[in-house]
Amino acid sequence: MAMNDPMANILSHIQNYEKIGRKEVLLNHSSNVIKEVLRVLNENSYIGDFEEIDNGKGGLVKLNLLNNVNKCGVIKPNFQIKKVEFDKFEKRFLPAKGFGILIVSTSQGIMTNEQAKEKGIGGKLLAYCY
After folding, report:
1. Is the pLDDT of residue 2 over 60?
2. Would you tell me which of 31, 61, 98, 118 could form a disulfide with 27, CB atoms 3.0–4.6 Å apart?
3. Do the domain assignments include residue 1?
4. What angle do CA 24, 93, 22 make, to 5 degrees?
């Protein structure tokens, strides 16, 4: 199976497995960015704990699902976003104010749009989840 975008693939796996009611999913291709995105989703209670499994090829991630994801996906292109522009992109990607998160890559690491707003920094949009 060809994978052009590992992040999009993993987020669609999470969404699909949640829809059919699975409790856990095994994911391939765990880069550091993907692990950080999973950490942010875990901190915001969208997914449960996850553990890395070394299979000698690139690693697997075993992920526990909580059935809290309605929709999630990557944001393409990865828009560069200033600290004052978050509202515009929240309206575009999230269904309602205060509902869901945008995941942003900043100079201080990967975090939610709310954390970036609190710190007063911008970054690149990676994904959304609600």
Report:
1. no
2. 61
3. no
4. 15
